Here is the input.
Amino acid sequence: MDTQHKGIADTIKDEIVSAMKGTGEVLSAAVSAVSGVVTNTIKNAGKIGTLAIEATSDVVRGTIQGVKEVGGDLGAAAKGIVLGVIRGIGQIGSQTLDAIGQTAGNIVKHTVEVVGDVGSAAKGAVEGAVDGAKEIGLNVEEAASAAATGAVKAAYKISSEVGTKVEKAVTGTIAGVKVVVKEPFRKLKK
Here is the structure.
């Protein structure tokens, strides 16, 4: 990881820790931090692309680390992260769905790194996708599916045990939406 990306993660972590110590509010702190970075990255790059996804990964890392450090709710943080990504992108399209899936995958990865509740974080990511989709007029079922599939795919890359836990957490009805996990990730099981 280069210094610039480490700087983003550390800055976000500090912002999250400070906000949570001040207000205790995980969701709004995560939404604010994430949407700001994503919006600025897209504005500077001119489009949603690799740069925005890399910045989002760094923001996810910093947010998860900060929330874990102060003992906050990783599910609420994950919801805020995905909601922030959707608000930051602010448009409807396949790139938004891709970003939701990649963000959910990063949430799983970074939650496992800090030994957090990966099931709660994955479910929170789906909840954030549903809320964000409603805000911008994106199909809520597609957004929920993108988040769930991204989370499950990342989880099975880590281990079958993590994969099973995440798959269980994101299967069924979440936030009033029937979640469908797309199954190409099954090939990744060992």
